[in-house]
Structures are given as structure tokens and as C-alpha cells.
């Protein structure tokens, strides 16, 4: 208990005699019966700054622990304005590693309990395999009964939302940059799986929709155009985009499947008219609209996708977005009434002999050898597939057609094998995966999960299963036995 | 060839970029070899010498041999597996050769047993699609072993003619190899060129060769196919003369310049038809459900 006056660098204490002096009122709660009086004027400024910054600092600490994504560095006192602005930037620069584990990485989520209640880290590999099997099962179960056609000749418009909402930083570095990066990968994958199809790009900015590139089959031109136009501002208008796409897609031939993929970041849409009418028109023109949202589920997008038969999904994070986007690369099951079957006239050009000099019709300059000659008008083109600029004939080569054949003849998903069968010595298949010869038993004689082809009954490990269904599209067992069907029947 | 047979990890500074994994697809079709100009035993001696030379070029090189039979395909040899009895030598050949030859003999007798009935004269083809698929699965396993792995490539030693029923499967394998960046080299021993292998080598960036003098096969193999992928950039290897990418029509099997494609199933026709013979779609009008499925593989009903 102080009797006289105590002093700190900026304040001095005096016992309170009366409670009327203004400077003592605010200090009562702090020090009880002592009056804390600031020293003469130069120090008063520092005193108030200290108090204010202490207040801000304690409240900032609370917000830090509530935030999950952004880390906030520990700033020096006196920089509270900068602290507030930097909240949104979200860099964990100033966090220590142990703090990042809680703030950014959520280390408690990578543990789980096993059956005896002990903690162990999550086995990512088995989860990945389980997810894959569920996905294959759901995909295949819808196509077993009827013979589902796939729309192999697709005309797809990708609508990129470049409104104000696309500059949000919840996807790092910004939604727009993440979307552009994954669109590039999607375009290449799309042309790989659908070589006869075409893509066009549309952007929404300032409430207007603009066509960035026309429908075309060359991936590089689309990617280049997109990367050059990455600025965002203004509102987003769904109706304008749909009207524009509708106008373009009405001009394509009737055998093509019309699709729109909208990558929507905004939470609202500013439309000049009735968007329900536009949706009905799209439905009448048989345009299949799908939406991938980046922020939250919106009713109008859900309604649009339901009416036109597309799919709506909302991305949780960057890798989920990539997954959702790449799901649109393989051809969707086609609704038979949507596209009229037709015979399309196509040309199969031969490669020109080396050393022949001719003027190519795409670059309008003389080139030596190495191109293709259109069989109808003999013009030279540089690469396939393309449309001849002179006579309009679609030019393809047989591998381009062959790329789509695996969609028509898919292999059935493999069945899981019960582990006890592997130890049966009378079983024809050995204990190694038929594809890669890797042993299906891990040391300790506990067999890992494996799968078997329903037709040839060969065993495969899970990694081969994924490779076979996603990339190879041939079952090595069925291809390696000429009489596999006969053999499997006699075994039954 | 189990998990314990994988080689011990190599310190990274010893691992240079010219280490290769060569998967050899050996054609053992008896219908072809009975009428070939080069006897199978002489062919095998060329190939064995070639495989030994590959293993000598770099101690980390790996060779895998898959036999392409008439009725089945199987792995014959893997140089990274521990041999069962390292002291087994029959006096004339070292252990690795005898191992390979023994397995090959078992495979050929097993393959012959699988010939069910007297086959039609048209079947002279071997199961190239099967051995390509097995090779690619094995290569994927090598990719999974981590960042240090040999550069894989596939060498097809093929003599039998192409089987048109394998077209789709072979093309699937080719595209998958192209995606994984695995070149497919081809050395055609038979009398005629192989369109499948020409396309395979062109699309995947491999080398296609039809040797003119089969007596000197070892020389062709060691000068053209022995180099690893890194060193190929510095060599002039045989270029594809003219790959024919034209398609054949489904009705007459003629090669055509211009044709009509069904927009539903992508079958190729040379003349305008009213109805597609593959998928049954009627052209020019809207579809109805329940089209007849003619060549669609029948699926087993799910229980």
C-alpha cells in the first residue's frame, strides 16, 4: 500500500482525496483508491496511445484465435491501423511453426481413433482408394441398365465470372487466378478426351457478358486469350451471359451437344430482365448448363441446372475445385432427344511429303513439308484436327476418332475380393497383381485389399485398378487371354 | 518378383539421367514363327545378346521381358528380381539366360495348351494389346516408387500381322503411353509393315524400324534401340517414312480420304446411309429409346 506518491515513467500515483477531479474518474477501476495522474503534457500523448494499443492488442488476440485461414502477425504496438488492414491478406509470415499448425493446417484433423481408441494418423492412401471406388461405383451404377449414349461431339462454352467477387482472396492468390490456372488444365484435358469438340470462352464483367474467344478446337489460342484478360470489376449478370451463349449455340449444327459451364464466384446476379424466361429458352434450345460455385450455393444456379439437366456443385477449396472442374471433361451421358444423329462429312488428310514447299492456309506463309493436304480442295493445313479454311471440311486423323472409342466401350468396374480367397491354394490366380506383378500380401501375411475383373477373374492391386479405369481403359486380363470369356464360363 | 525383390535404394549422386528401364514385348506366336525366314532359336540368341548388352551399358539399367503369345501373355523375366538359384548354370549360358529360357519354354507350352479348337485361318495375330497393357501397368508401378526411377520405354519385337479386333485396345494403350510419356519403339520382324506399330511409334515418339537383313538383327537392335532416352537427342535415328493416318470405312474396310462419321458412335462410312449399322441410330431425325445394340459388349447383370 502506497503512502505517498509512486511514479512510473509516464504516470504518477497519488492517493485519491476526492472523486471530482476529471482525471481520476477513468482510473478508478484500474488502481482502486489510487489516483493515476498523467504527468505533464508531453507524456499525456504517449499514455493515451499505450492504453489504446493495449486495448486493440487484446481484442486482436481474440480474433486471431477465431480465424482459421489467415494468420496475423504480431505487430509492434502503435501499428494498430495496419493490423486491421492486413487482416484480409492472410499471410502466416509472422506465425511460429507451432502456431501455424493450429491456425493454418489444423493438425488435429489428421488423426483419427482406431478400434481400440488409440490415436493414429490418417492413412491417406486407403481414403483415396475408398473415395475412388465410391466414385466409380456411383458413375457406373447409372449406366448399367439402359444403353446410355454419350455426347461425343460437344460444343462447350466456359463462362468465367470476372466480377468484383472474383478478386476475393479465399482461394490463394485470388479466385480469379486459381480459376484461370485450372481452366488451362481443363482445356487441355478436354481436348485430350474430346478431340472432335470445340470450346469457347465468355467473361462476365461490369454486368456485361463478352465473348472472349469463338468456338474453336485449338487449346493454345483459348489459353492465351484468357491469360491476357484477367481483370475483375463490377457486378455479375447471369442472364446476360446466358443470352449471349444462347445466341451463339443456336448457330451450331444439330448433331452437336450444346453445353455451358459457368464458374460463378459472385453471390448475386444483376439482370436486365426476367432470368426465368432466359432459363426456359435455354431449356427449349436443349443447352445443358452446369455451374461450379466458388462462394456458396445460390438458388438461381440450382434452378438453372435442374431445369437444363446440368450439374451444380460448390467448391470447398482449391483441390476440390480442380476435381469438380475435371469431372466435366469426360462426355456426359447424352439425352437422346437433345442431339439429332447425323452423318458428318469428314476428311482424312495424308501427311505431305518432306521437302514439298507450299503456302499454308492458317498462317498464310510458305512452309516446307510437314503439313497435311485437304482431300477436297488440296489446301495445306498445319495441324489436325481442324476445319479447312478454304472449303470448310472437318479434317481429322483416325487416332482422333480412336480417342473417343473408350467412352463407347467402357470396362466394368472391378469387384472387391474378399481377403480369405487369396490364401486359397487352389485359386488359379497367384498372389501377385496381374498388371504390375506386385505382391498382394504385405509382410506379416495380412493381405491388402485387391480387386478382380468380373470377366477374366484376374486380381489387380488398387493402384492398377485406378490406372486401368482412369487412363488405360483396357483390362490387361481380358486383353491377355484370347479365350477369356470361354474360360470364365467353364469355371462357373 | 515380389516386393522384396526391389533393388536397394541408390544414393542420388550415383543416379544419372541415362538409366533406363526397357520392357521388351517378345512375339512368340507359333503361327508366325513356323513360317518366318529367321528361325526362332537364332532370333532368341540375337535378343539375349542384346539384353545382356543393355544390362552392361549401365549397372542400374533394368530389363523386363513380356511374351506376347497367340492365346495369352505373361511376364517372363525381370532383371531386378533376385534369381531363385544363383548358382544354377548349365555350363554354356550364364544364370540369367537360363532363367529366361526356362520361363519362356513354360510359357510357350502353356500357350499352346490354351488353343481350344482349330482356329480359323484368319487368326495369325498375337495379343499385342494384352502385353502392351501389362507393360504399361508395370511401368506405372515403377513411377510409384518415388522420384528416383529409371526412364521407362517399351520395345516391341513383333512379327505377327495386326489383328483388327484389337484396334481399340491398342489405341487406348498408345494414348495412355503418350500421356505417361513412355515411348514405344517397334522392330518388325515379319514380312509386312504393321500399321498399329507405326502409329504407336509416331504418336508416342518412339522409333519404328523394319530391318532389311534379319541375319544382322543384333546390329540393328544395338545401334538403334539400345540408346537411352536422354542420349537419343544427340543421335540420328530412323525417321518415320510416311505414317498413314487415313481411316478405313466400316463397310468395306477400304482406306478412304473422305468419309461420313456417325455423330453418335463415330463409325466411319464411305457412302451416305440412312441408318448407322453400328449403333442403329436413324440419321436426320430425333432418337427414341431402345436402339438395337449390335456390337456392343454385353454387360453381366449386376446382382
TrEMBL record, chain A:
<dbReference type="InterPro" id="IPR046349">
    <property type="entry name" value="C1-like_sf"/>
</dbReference>
<dbReference type="InterPro" id="IPR002035">
    <property type="entry name" value="VWF_A"/>
</dbReference>
<keyword id="KW-0479">Metal-binding</keyword>
<feature type="domain" description="VWFA">
    <location>
        <begin position="155"/>
        <end position="295"/>
    </location>
</feature>
<feature type="compositionally biased region" description="Acidic residues">
    <location>
        <begin position="78"/>
        <end position="89"/>
    </location>
</feature>
<keyword id="KW-0539">Nucleus</keyword>
<keyword id="KW-0805">Transcription regulation</keyword>
<comment type="similarity">
    <text>Belongs to the GTF2H2 family.</text>
</comment>
<keyword id="KW-0862">Zinc</keyword>
<keyword id="KW-0804">Transcription</keyword>
<keyword id="KW-0863">Zinc-finger</keyword>
<dbReference type="InterPro" id="IPR007198">
    <property type="entry name" value="Ssl1-like"/>
</dbReference>
<keyword id="KW-0234">DNA repair</keyword>
<feature type="region of interest" description="Disordered">
    <location>
        <begin position="66"/>
        <end position="96"/>
    </location>
</feature>
<keyword id="KW-0227">DNA damage</keyword>
<feature type="compositionally biased region" description="Basic and acidic residues">
    <location>
        <begin position="66"/>
        <end position="77"/>
    </location>
</feature>
<protein>
    <recommendedName>
        <fullName>General transcription factor IIH subunit</fullName>
    </recommendedName>
</protein>
<dbReference type="InterPro" id="IPR012170">
    <property type="entry name" value="TFIIH_SSL1/p44"/>
</dbReference>
<dbReference type="InterPro" id="IPR036465">
    <property type="entry name" value="vWFA_dom_sf"/>
</dbReference>
<dbReference type="InterPro" id="IPR013087">
    <property type="entry name" value="Znf_C2H2_type"/>
</dbReference>
<dbReference type="InterPro" id="IPR004595">
    <property type="entry name" value="TFIIH_C1-like_dom"/>
</dbReference>
<dbReference type="InterPro" id="IPR013083">
    <property type="entry name" value="Znf_RING/FYVE/PHD"/>
</dbReference>
From TrEMBL, chain B:
<keyword id="KW-0863">Zinc-finger</keyword>
<keyword id="KW-0805">Transcription regulation</keyword>
<dbReference type="InterPro" id="IPR036465">
    <property type="entry name" value="vWFA_dom_sf"/>
</dbReference>
<comment type="similarity">
    <text>Belongs to the TFB4 family.</text>
</comment>
<comment type="subunit">
    <text>Component of the 7-subunit TFIIH core complex composed of XPB, XPD, TFB1/GTF2H1, GTF2H2/P44, TFB4/GTF2H3, TFB2/GTF2H4 and TFB5/GTF2H5, which is active in NER. The core complex associates with the 3-subunit CDK-activating kinase (CAK) module composed of CYCH1/cyclin H1, CDKD and MAT1/At4g30820 to form the 10-subunit holoenzyme (holo-TFIIH) active in transcription.</text>
</comment>
<dbReference type="Pfam" id="PF03850">
    <property type="entry name" value="Tfb4"/>
</dbReference>
<keyword id="KW-0227">DNA damage</keyword>
<keyword id="KW-0234">DNA repair</keyword>
<protein>
    <recommendedName>
        <fullName>General transcription and DNA repair factor IIH subunit TFB4</fullName>
    </recommendedName>
</protein>
<keyword id="KW-0862">Zinc</keyword>
<keyword id="KW-0539">Nucleus</keyword>
<keyword id="KW-0804">Transcription</keyword>
<keyword id="KW-0479">Metal-binding</keyword>
<dbReference type="InterPro" id="IPR004600">
    <property type="entry name" value="TFIIH_Tfb4/GTF2H3"/>
</dbReference>
<comment type="function">
    <text>Component of the general transcription and DNA repair factor IIH (TFIIH) core complex, which is involved in general and transcription-coupled nucleotide excision repair (NER) of damaged DNA and, when complexed to CAK, in RNA transcription by RNA polymerase II. In NER, TFIIH acts by opening DNA around the lesion to allow the excision of the damaged oligonucleotide and its replacement by a new DNA fragment. In transcription, TFIIH has an essential role in transcription initiation.</text>
</comment>
